[in-house]
Amino acid sequence: MFQPASLPIYEKHLSFVLNDKQNLHPHVHGDLELLYVLTGQVTITTCNQYLLSAEDFIVLNPFEFHSLTGEDAQVLSLYFSSQLLQTLYPEYQSRWISCVSCTDSNPFYHSLIRQLLAELLYTYISENNNEHHVFWSSCLQLLEILMQVYSCNLDSEPVSDSVRSRVLRATRYVAAHFTEQLTLHDMAQAEYVTPSYFAKMFKDCTGQTFMHYVDCFRLSHAVHDLLHTSRSVTDIAFQSGFNNTNHFIRVFRKNYGVTPGQYRNKNAAQEKSATSDWNYEVLGSLLKHRKEGSVLLQQVLKKPLDQFSFRADFSTGSKRFIQNWNRILNIGA
After folding, report:
1. DSSP 8-state class, residue 90
2. Which of 93, 233, 237, 303 is the most exposed place for a label (fewest CB within 10 A)?
3. Backbone angles phi, psi at 14, to 5 degrees
4. Contact 41, 51 (CB under 8 A)
């Protein structure tokens, strides 16, 4: 992850992660993720599967279960914090963004998204404190495109889509209460449906059973603590919602192939060996889109001007024009 020390406000609400791992285990998080393929091909699995090639991108919604497999691939992810989304779009929790560049034919907005992402990345890694306005301008434009062009309001969708709204409500409940005991029966009762109906509904929308989703959410929290804290495996297990250390280790090994301790030692060593020596030639495959921005933005903002014709008749009597410009107060735009 890039870590520009001079720009703490960026890391509080946005972060870039450059990843060259060939596989990312099934996981879930509370941020909005825009994943961009720099090189190679990757398969993203949510409730559906998508094959993304270089310069393709996908938006992963908060609490959307997903995994990644690839070969000789490098991907760049931009994360928007839930706090930022809540501040800018108070209604965002009832919205769902469907944006996969390889499945919809909208080259104009695809190019614009690439340009704005490139602008954000360039400002982020340049550590230029004088370009805050450029950074946040690009950020807001990007979010506005995603919200206005690619999102739908789940609360106003047909009955078939209200199922997704229920499932999304359940995933957010898991995020807020993952340290507590969570059961399929309790969640079904909260949604006023039978356990069997809730189980089918959840599996259809996420591709996972409810309890597997809960385990993966807890594991995502545990992985973060393993890599970023010095707490013991036992403490991390309980703070991640597992009430038994042996069960935690068993579930962790089943999903990651190693024990929590082995995972910490292996990946902590990789993080320590990582430096700022990023492959900027690879990043250049995205940054090249930055130059296209001014033309695209002008096309978005440009609107046809209405034309009016006026005719003045000076043949009649006239009176002196009184200037009122210095006695007018403008309020608002």
Report:
1. T
2. 303
3. -140, 150
4. yes
Are the CB atoms for 219 and 252 separated by under 8 Å? yes
Residues 6+ apart with CB under 8 A from 82: 30, 31, 32, 62
Q: Where are the alpha helices (DSSP H) in the chain?
A: 8-13, 82-88, 107-126, 132-149, 159-177, 184-190, 195-206, 210-228, 233-239, 245-256, 260-273, 280-287, 293-301
**Distance separating alpha carbons of residues 31 and 200, to the nearest angstrom:** 26
Question: Residue 65 in contact with residue 216, Cβ under 8 Å?
Answer: yes
Residues in contact with 207: Cβ distance below 8 Å, sequence separation at least 6, in sequence order: 45, 46, 47, 48, 65
Is residue 329 helix, strand or coil? coil
- pLDDT tens-digit series, residues 83-122: 899 889 888 888 889 999 999 888 899 999 999 999 998 8
Neighbours of 93 (CB within 10 A): 18
- Give strand ranges (E) for the chain: 14-19, 23-27, 32-45, 49-52, 57-60, 66-80, 95-97, 151-153
Q: What angle do CA 226, 242, 93 make, to 5 degrees?
A: 85
Structure tokens at 325: 């410009």
As a whole number of angstroms, the distance between CA 37 and CA 128 comes to: 25
Beta strands 57-60; 23-27: pairing state: unpaired
Task: Provide the phi-psi class of 55: left if phi over 0, else alpha when psi is between -120 and 50, else beta.
Answer: left
d(CA 168, CA 48): 16
Q: Which residues pair with residue 67 across a beta bridge?
A: 45
Tokens representing 89?
Answer: 């779009």
**φ, ψ (nearest 5 deg) of residue 198:** -65, -40
* pLDDT 10s digits, 204-234: 888 889 999 999 889 988 988 998 889 999 9
- Per DSSP, 255 falls in state H
Q: Report the alpha-carbon distance of residue 322 to residue 324 in Å, rounded.
A: 6
